[in-house]
User: Fold this.
Amino acid sequence: MQDITILQQQALEAIDKATNENALDAIRVEYLGKKGKLTDILKNLVHLSAAEKPKVGQLVNLAKRDIAL
Assistant:
């Protein structure tokens, strides 16, 4: 779960440093796109226990919401 927080921080730092719309779009794709880093975590939820799935899913969705803003 710490990986999610780290990815979120990295994405937000990259957004702060972005200088144009193309850079922002590249960040969005890198983290939220079909093969994005956070999307990959969601795809791997099937490998987690039933107790872990909701927690991890919620963290990823919160990170995605923060990044998309």
Residues 28 and 68 are 7 Å apart (CA to CA).
